[in-house]
Specification:
10 helices, elongated
Length: 200
């Protein structure tokens, strides 16, 4: 075989080999484990997440359940995923920043996929005294912000505002009475009753 013919045959083989660059060089099927890792790392870089939140994100990208479980097991082993620490962080931050009660925090943790037992342990750091102190501050703030309104309206708005944060009406009613009394706004015994029942 001549050298020219040899080079021609080699050229034909090189053309038939997969190209080193371009779309054809990419895998048609991405490595699902790499996809799962990339999803978890991206989300955890933004903020801490529960295992359930990461699982849901992987499912949306069609990562097989067994691959997601394996990746998250590994992330749990090295401490990147820890639902107990995550729940404690949520309880501390959401109570401090938004004044959420333990009841509201329990519902939020459930929405985020945290196990009820893990949630209960995290909520144990929030004492009844802390909750009442936070509720008292919220009551004082709400009453101050509605100072120009009729007292029954102020009471109703305060009850509603703290109700949305998960505080029981009975506790809020007592704190409203105390706050208004200390400010010498209540000048008749039945004034609070005009806003509706407060002992529920």
């Amino acid at each position: 075989m001549s050298a020219a013919r040899g080079r021609s045959a080699a050229s034909r083989w090189r053309v038939e080999e997969p190209p080193a660059t371009g779309a054809a060089a990419q895998d048609a099927e991405p490595d699902q484990e790499q996809v799962a890792r990339a999803i978890a790392l991206r989300m955890l870089t933004d903020s801490p997440r529960s295992r359930a939140q990461l699982e849901q994100a992987m499912a949306r990208k069609a990562v097989p359940d067994e691959v997601a479980a394996a990746v998250l097991d590994r992330f749990t082993e090295v401490g990147l995923v820890d639902d107990a620490q995550y729940a404690e962080l949520v309880v501390r931050s959401r109570h401090a920043e938004r004044g959420l009660s333990s009841r509201a925090l329990r519902a939020e943790l459930r929405r985020r996929g945290v196990d009820d037992e893990v949630s209960q342990e995290a909520l144990a750091q929030l004492t009844p005294e802390q909750e009442e102190a936070t509720a008292r501050r919220l009551v004082a703030r709400k009453l101050a912000s509605t100072a120009g309104l009729d007292t029954p309206v102020r009471i109703r708005r305060t009850l509603a505002a703290l109700g949305r944060k998960g505080y029981p009406p009975g506790l809020v009613a007592r704190l409203v009475r105390e706050e208004l009394s200390s400010a010498q706004i209540l000048d008749e015994a039945g004034l609070l009753d005009e806003a509706g029942p407060l002992d529920g």
